[in-house]
Every structure is written in structure tokens, then in C-alpha cells.
Amino acid sequence: MLTRRQFIKMAMATTAALELSDFLIPRLAEAFTGKKRPPVIWLEMMTCTGDYLSVVNTLHPNMREILFNTIDLYFSNTTMAAEGDLAIETLVETAEREKGEFILIAEGTVPMKADGRYGAIGHHRDGTLFTDLEAIRYIAPKAKYIMAVGTCAAFGGPYAAYPNPSGSVPVHKVVDGQVINVPGCPVHPDWAIGTLTHLLLYGVPNLDAFNRPTVFFGKRIHDWCPRRQHFDNGVFAEHPGEEKCAYKIGCKGPVTFVDCPTRQWIGEHNSWPVEANTPCIGCVSPGFPDAMTPFYAHLPDLNVMGIRASADKVGIGVAAATAIGIGTHLTANIASGRLGKHWVEGTKPRPEGIIRDIRKHSGDRQKEVVFIPEKSIKGTYLKRYHIKSGNINDKKKYKIGRGRWMLGFKMGDKRR
Amino acid sequence: MNKRIRISPVTRINGFWNLEVEVDGGKITDAWSSGIFFRGFEEILKGRDPRDAAYLTERICGICSSAHAVAASRALEAALKIEVPRNAVLLRNLSFGADLLQNHIRHFYLLTVLDFVRGPDRPPYIPRYEADYRLSRVETDRVMNNYRGHFEIARLTHEMVTIFGGKAPHQHGIVPGGATTIPKVDRIQKFMGMLDLVIKFLEDKLLPDMELLAGRYEDYYRIGRGYGNLLAYGNFPVPDSPGKFVMPFGLYTGGKKEDFDPTVIREHVHYSWFLQDRPRHPSEGETDAEPDKAGAYSWVKAPRYNGRPFETGPLANLWMKGEYTNGISTMDRLVARAIEARFVAVLMKQWLKEIEIGKPVYQPFELPDRESEGVGFTGAMRGALAHWVRFRGSKILHYQIITPSAWYCSPRDDNGMRGPIEEALVGTPVADVSNPVEVGRVARSFDPCLACAVHLVRIEGNRLKFRNESI
């Protein structure tokens, strides 16, 4: 049996021969010989299905291997033969029969407005809507592990972008248990299948502050970018389609944590957005796309002269915090309103309405998003937000000071 | 005896869809198609940079993402009168063509085949309807073997998208102003190698399998005809010939072809959950949502061309091209899709050879500080797709999208005329009401994508307002 350490090493390796490939299939087979195959439910909610269609692009192991030899995929809107009542019954039956056994892969946001009527997975037999909200609330507590695949499920993504017309929230906001976020718009098949494999073989992987597996989301694009030397030398593209550093045309690599530069897309390592002479749009980060648009506007406060210093400055807090997602420098600027207009426009703070919605729709549980202090890292005073029981209006208790909602962060004061 | 059947969700499509049919005497007498989820893309786009629309609108649909990039780019280019370089036309055709192959291969195997072939006895292929699966055991094994093989080939088509597009789905290479990846011999070579494998698969596996199904299910050439109205937008521009397309614009109704006129498109909402005074054109489309509206049953509006419902897709494309005019039916739609896949794949080989290494791929441009307006029409994987954009400087003022799926998944219009899929379902025989496999066979032949068809939502003040993504 492969040790966990070996697995991590393999998953991080990016040459074709060393991927989650030939080693894993036999290992997986070994792990489940004589046992029943692990049951999986793939629940699509409000989504473009891009994540599913990306995951079927997996090369090693091939989707054929996964579907026919590795797992039992009981429910998947895009693959299953059953339809209508038969499909809904399969979902319910599986959730009941395999309670505590199955892995739930959730894709897409959960729309909260109008009691969740903005998105449904189908109808109940009695003719009422089976909403996404109802489905995730019903199924998630029964799952052994919950994987939120794609930026929508993990952080909200494009459908939750300002002004969030459907009141979409990510999975972790409506579910009590631990949610393993595997973001990406779309998710890279290696990230999703790699995480699934880790869950099957070793349980929950090491996670970063946003519950993303560090094995895939621990590298900052900027540090591993093959065009980093162009950045340091000040050789910048003026428009898409130039083979130079894409920083000035809006590359979000300096604040994006994922292994795209080394892993590349898809199984055959053809290319990735920067190699295609376009900016990275930071699709794995919380706050995508609001925090990342305009896509062609560059990050603030990295003036071209003395680049090295300021770029590293952006990196310090982020790198230390292992994938906080947005540089402290940047966050500070957003919070203090010192950003250039080109940056702030289109990236208005998340309306508080969403938060009220959660309270409204979570019924008696009184879920709230409140801030709790995170340990300070080298002069950064970032705080994560957590879902805790409590009342958001109780400012004394949670010491919500001045500041603005932004990207799921709030700047704290230095006293803490 | 009248019996109403509800199929919700109709699985093996992109998105969530509810179909209801009324069966009387073994035949469908009436049908209702309803989209059951909706987002709000146009409202999200408002106020953003018009150049961002190409990437953002891709996120509408995971299976046809590059089609939205093409339409959004063309809309901006039309507004600013940008001429994209010759290489850009070719690279876009190649990336988009590869995505089209991906869609057609996945539609046939992943989505359609299980309606006609008994799948293996393991999840997710059980439970299933017990119906007339007419293939012998050997033939079933053959098709299911190719089903397993298609994962590899569909992956290759997405790999092809990444060669010039950076990633897939939601590629980066098609942007307003042209393409971005600089074609070099290694990329072209790699693309060619993969394309050859795909063509081989199409010729050796997909087309024979299609032929086998068409032979065994010959009666489906007479089932699901619908209105017989076809609509196609120009697809795959010919390099160096502005305004010329490999797949031409056109429509076919009442047994003859007509020229396409974009000004007579209207959207009806009588049976959709919206309030509107009269059918409106995309450029003036504003809609109030009324989820409790009596009589309404779908979030999809009813786009009509000159008051008539139209279907769109590979059959319409090939019909206008004159490549396929056998007939309009369930089986014809499936056959046309398979033929179009091979047709495009062979064309792509030609485009690949025409690329001029070292020539530009991108035309830089500025966003002027005046109000500009443009429309981007394109044939997508599923047919006629159009984006309407109005912007000033770096701000979008108005964005409207009509997707192909909105055309054929639409509900009844103001005059009570059924949508194309509803009409096609009427008259379809249903042998066993508890295993209504025939409904899915007819409906999936259209390649419905509810992720594209469903409506968009906007908020104004305290009132919920909805706007159609697909006016």
C-alpha cells in the first residue's frame, strides 16, 4: 500500500509519468478488493456542468476506469440512465441506504432566494419542486465526506457575483459538516480526482485556510510562473496575444494559489491561460469573479519600477498564510478604499442581503456569519470568517469594528 | 384514458428540465416543457468591462462554453468595427470546432445512447426504463464498448481546445480582437495528431454506431417531426471573406428557404413566469417576474421569428448548407449531428494547414468613450446563438443573449402555439406509461441545454425583476 507521503509526492509531481496514474489504479483496486466499491453521489445544483465535463477529461485514471472499476456513481444528472421520479428515488434511496458511507460531490451554488425556488434538481412525486437547498440539506448530513467541486460550490463563483440575482451561496454556508473545497472554474480533473482518491485511501487531506487541499492549492502561480523572469525584467505584454509577462494586462497570478503553471491543462500538459498569452483570472480564489474583474485590469500598487520589492511585498503575507488567496497588500487597499477606480468598479462589496438570507432560510438554527480573529501573520491582520451560531448584531460579543465586507475578509485593527 | 406523465428531471442533458406529457390511447396528445432553474447573467454583466463578457458568458454553459466566447467577441468586434487577422479566424474556428466535436461526441455517447441501448447492470446505468431496446447482445456490447472508448476521445477534443485556448472548458484563447495563442509548428502538429485520432473515431465508431441505431430504430424517422421550421446562423467564418460563413445563415419554413432578418425576432411570455405588455425584440427586452402568474409553467421565454417557432441545431445548419435534406425527425437530428461532426473535423484539417506561422493573431483596440452597440451571431453546437451588447467606454449598459436551447425548449407563445420540442412530442407513441422512454428519445435528439435556456434574473428596488438571457 502506498503511504500517504508517497501519495502526496505523486500528486504534486507534474510529469506525465508520475501523475495520479499507473500507481494509483492498482492501489485503488488493491484497497477495495473484495469490498464493495465506494458509493458516490454527484449532485449538480446551480451550475453550468463545466466541472463535471472537466472531470470526465481525467487522463490517469481515465473516467472509464473510475466509472466502471473504481466507484459506484449512483446519481449524476449528466450520466445516469434513470430520469424523472426514477432518478429522484435513486438519489433518496442511495442517501438512505449508504448513509455515512457515500461521498457527496456537490457542484454549483445553492440559490437561497424565494425559498430556493431559483434552482431545483427536479420534482417530488407529489409535484412539488425538489429545490437545490432542500437537496443539499437533506443529503449532505448523511455523507461521509462532502467535496465542493468547482468555484461555485466552494466559494459562490460567477452566479454569486454582484448583484447576486439568485441569492446564491456556496455549499459550506448551508451545510454543517466539513466541506472540502476543490475550486476552479472549471476544476482541473487532477484536483478533483486527486482529492477524491485521497479521501478514499487516506481520508481528509491537509487543507488550507479555505479548506482547499494544500497539495494542489499550496503554490502561488506567480512563484512558479515560467514567465516570472519577464516580470522581474519588466518585459510586459501590452495586449493579449503577446508572449510576455501578462501582469499588466491583468494577470492575477500574484494572488492566486494553485499549481496551474506546473500541472497545466489537461492530461497532456498542453497549455494554461498564461501560456495562451492571456491573464490568469484567479478562478480558484474566493471572490472570483468580483475580486478578479476587470480581467484585463492589473493588480493595484505594483508599480512597474522596483517591481521585485512590491511584488514580493504582496507575496509575504499570502505565502506565509499558505493560500489566504489575496495578498495582504491588496486586501488592505480594498478595505481602506485606496484602490484605483479601475479595480473597485465592478467589484462592489458583497451585499449584506445574502447574509440575512442565510438567517432567514436556515430556520431555527440561526446560522450567522461572524468574524473571529485568526492568528496574525507577520504584520498581517487578516481574519477569516466562520459560520458560528450567534447573532451578528451582537457587536460587542464579536467585536465587529469598522470595515467593509470584502472577499470574505475584513481587516482587523492592529490591537488584536 | 388520459394520463399525464411528469419527467423531472430529464437527466442526461445539461441543466435541469421538467417535461410533462399527456398520453391518450398510446400516443402523446400534449406536452409542456419547463426550465426549472435560472440565474441572472445579464444583470451580473451590467456595469462590467465589455471585454470581460467573453470569459464571463462562457460560464453560462460548460459544454458549449467557447460558442459564447465567439458570440461575445463578435458582438464587441461588430460594435467597434474591428477586423480580426486571418490567423485569428482560423484559430477560433479550430478551438471552437474542437469544442463542437466534444459536444457532438459527448451528446451521442454520454447523453443519447442510453435511450436506445441497454446499459451495463451497474450504477449509474441502473435503474433504467425497461423498454424496447432493439439491439442484439453483440451489438449492445459493441456500442457500450465504444461508450467506454468515447471518454478518451472526448478528452482529446478538449485537449485540442487547450492547445490554442489555455484550458477547457471555459477556454481563454478566443477574445475580442482575435485569438491569443501564437501558432507554432509543435502546437499545430499536436493538434493535427489528436484531430486524426478523433476523425478515426468518428469514422470507425460513431458513424457506424449511428447507422446501426438509425437502422434498428427506423420508425424514429417518422416520429418527432415538429413544425418543420429550421433556423441557422452563420458558423465558421471563411478567412479573407468577411461576412461569408462555411455554414450559412438561413431559415427553412413551409417547405422553402428564406433569408434571415434579425429585426423580426420577438419574445413571448404569456406562458412564462414573466409580466410583459407585448412581445419584445432583444434590444428592448425588459421583463418582470411573477412566479405566481396563473397559467405560466416555465422560466424559459418563447422566442419567435416572425411569430413562428423555429428549431435550430446541426440539422438546420446542414439543411442551409445543402449537405443534409433527408427530412426532419428525431432520427434525422441525430444523424445530422453525427454528419456535422465529421464535416467539421475534416474542415479543421484544412484550416490547420492554412495557418500562417509568424503572422499576427490579435488586433489591438481601444474602448471609445461613446455609446456603441453590436450583435454577435454565431452557429453554436446547438444552433443559433446571438449576443446583443450596448456599452460606453469600459461599462456594459445592456446585454442580451438568445441561446439555441431557448428556441426549442420554449413553452407556448402568446398565440398558444407550442414550443418546437412540445410540438415534436405530440403524436409520439408511448408503449408503456410507466416506462416512457420515447419521450426522452425525441426530446434529447434536440440536444437541449437548459443551462443555456433558462432565464436570467434582475432585481430592481424591492421588486424582483427577471430578464431573459435568451430574449
How would you describe what is shown here?
The complex is a heterodimer of chains A (416) and B (471). Chain A folds into 3 domains: 4-217, NADH:ubiquinone oxidoreductase-like, 20kDa subunit (Rossmann fold); 221-344, Cytochrome-c3 Hydrogenase, Chain A, domain 2; 353-411, no CATH class. Helices cover 32% and strands 12% of the residues of chain A. Chain A is built from 18 helices and 13 strands. In chain A, the strands form 5 sheets. Chain A has a 5-stranded parallel β-sheet with strand order 2-1-3-7-9, sandwiched between helices. A two-stranded antiparallel ribbon of chain A has the order 4-8. The longest helix of chain A has 14 residues, at 189-202. Chain A is globular. Chain B is α+β, with helices and mostly antiparallel strands. Chain B has helices at residues 41-45, 53-58, 65-80, 86-116, 137-165, 185-216, 314-321, 330-354, 404-409, 420-425, 437-444, 450-453, and strands at 2-7, 17-24, 27-35, 174-175, 178-179, 230-232, 235-237, 245-247, 250-253, 256-258, 265-268, 274-275, 288-289, 302-305, 311-312, 371-380, 383-392, 395-402, 456-460, 463-467. In chain B, the strands form 8 sheets. Chain B has a 4-stranded mixed β-sheet. In chain B, strand 7 (235-237) and strand 8 (245-247) form a beta hairpin. The longest helix of chain B has 32 residues, at 185-216. The interface between A and B is large, with 92 and 90 residues.
